[in-house]
Amino acid sequence: AQLSKAGVEHQLRREIEIQAHLRHPNILRLYGYFYDSTRIYLILEFAAKGELYKELQKCGQFDEKRSAKYIRSLAAALDYCHSKHVIHRDIKPENLLLDLRGELKIADFGWSVHAPHSRRTTLCGTLDYLPPEMIEGKPHNQMVDVWSLGILMYEFLVGSPPFE
């Protein structure tokens, strides 16, 4: 009932459906879910080292080797998502987690969409990472994730997003 009132039921259902079917070493695994009368509980892979955002804040910026490692992992995960016709649409440091070994995991598929044939028009994501076509309200496709990848590479190396 609370979810319906908040207008997020459809978005949460889509997030669960999409993430439950993705299997990649750099995507946070959704093992299952359950719910009671007031809440939905997601059973997720444990990312022991938490948000990449906090690591970036602590370090200020990453060196080229570390940045390349994260970008390579993220690019592989996005390539996999796009091969499954999934667009994440909210790639940012807060949605990237680190496991116990420091391996990157994409999380939070709340804005993601399965789009096998159509271009999307929904404005979503986080302003610092939005590509021009989304800001202009034009149709977009999986390339919005590639734009975010470039923004992240800059942010990893410099310590702040380029258009802040």
From TrEMBL:
It holds the Pfam family Pkinase. Keywords: ATP-binding, Kinase, Nucleotide-binding, Serine/threonine-protein kinase, Transferase. Its EC number is 2.7.11.1. The keyword Magnesium does not apply. The active site is at D90. InterPro entries: Aur-like (IPR030616), Kinase-like_dom_sf (IPR011009), Prot_kinase_dom (IPR000719), Ser/Thr_kinase_AS (IPR008271). Gene3D superfamilies: Transferase(Phosphotransferase) domain 1. CDD domains: STKc_Aurora. SUPFAM superfamilies: Protein kinase-like (PK-like) (SSF56112). It catalyses: L-threonyl-[protein] + ATP = O-phospho-L-threonyl-[protein] + ADP + H(+); L-seryl-[protein] + ATP = O-phospho-L-seryl-[protein] + ADP + H(+). GO terms for molecular function: ATP binding; protein serine/threonine kinase activity. There is a cross-link at K92 (Glycyl lysine isopeptide (Lys-Gly) (interchain with G-Cter in SUMO2)). Signal peptide: none annotated. ATP binds at E45, F46, A47, E94, N95, D108. Residues 1-164 form the Protein kinase domain. Belongs to the protein kinase superfamily. Ser/Thr protein kinase family. Aurora subfamily. PANTHER family: SERINE/THREONINE-PROTEIN KINASE IAL-RELATED (PTHR24350). This is Aurora kinase.
